[in-house]
Amino acid sequence: MQPSNYIIEVNEEDFEYEVLLYSQQIPVVVDFWAEWCGPCKMLGPLLERLAQEANGAFRLAKINVDENTNLAMRYNVRSIPAVKGFRDGQVVAEFLGAQPEPRVKQWLRELAPSHTDLALEKANSLLKDHDWAAASQVFQQVLKDNLNDPSALLGFGKCLMMTGKPEKALEILNRIPSGREFSKAQTLIPAAKALVNITEKDIVEDDLLEAAYAHSLRLAKRGNLEAALDGLLDILRQNKQFRNGEARKVIVALLDIFDEDDPIARQYRSELSMILF
Question: Which position among 7, 37, 153, 217 bears the catalytic label?
């Protein structure tokens, strides 16, 4: 799609083709507006900017209700701005009034995922399956086009931790800007630091817990999460404050590498709670 086609004025004569038929190819967002409508003047420019930024993930069709009263009646538009999302010729999503930008973006992501959104969905699915190498490749592709995408940085950092590259993981995690992903990165950083710092020199031969800790971290560096967590939990069963709480922080961080709804992670979190409390 050429940039000039991202946004189009539509009327009753060309609506069938420009919206209904076109929505069989990509989603079409229809903005019902009017010159006299104050909120329309806030929402309209936002939708136009997001349409350009989406780079063809959806088309924005603008309909002046004063000039196209039949279309307004057909789609039961009683107040404006009214925004309706079309796929395959049907309205599949809608909202009324001028909404804040984050809410509009979320609505658009659900209606018309961008190429980046689809790539991140694929990468996170691979991450959920613990296919660290494949997930890493997809995250890197996203970062080529979106250097500071926080979701891609977070996912890539997790992959680096699980493929023996904790130094690079620390660098990536520290690049994440403030926000939801930043908080998650801060949880992961203690584990990344532990993976960087653990060496054979740290192993005290007559200290079994130190040896077990080093072994668990080496398992984590090879991506063997479950075996690493088993070892770390055994350490906490013997010493809840091992290394002044470092082992506990590492466990919490490693659990964050799992998908939030992963039943294995829930099991380990339950075991951790029983040990600590």
Answer: 37
Select from 175, 179, 130 the least CA-distant residue to 157. 175
List pLDDT tens digits, range 190-201: 999 999 987 655
- Tell the residue number behind the tokens 């800790």, with chain if given: 213
pTM, entire model: 0.70
| Cα within 13 Å of Cα(121), Cβ side | 8
CB of 57 closer than 8 Å to CB of 114: yes
37 is catalytic: yes
Q: Tokens 């490693």 identify what position?
A: 254
| 40 among known catalytic residues | yes
DSSP state string for 199-248: -GGG--TT-HHHHHHHHHHHHHHTT-HHHHHHHHHHHHHH-TTGGGGHHH
The label of the residue with tokens 């789609």 reads: 75
What angle separates helix 208-221 from helix 180-197, to the nearest 10 degrees?
A: 120
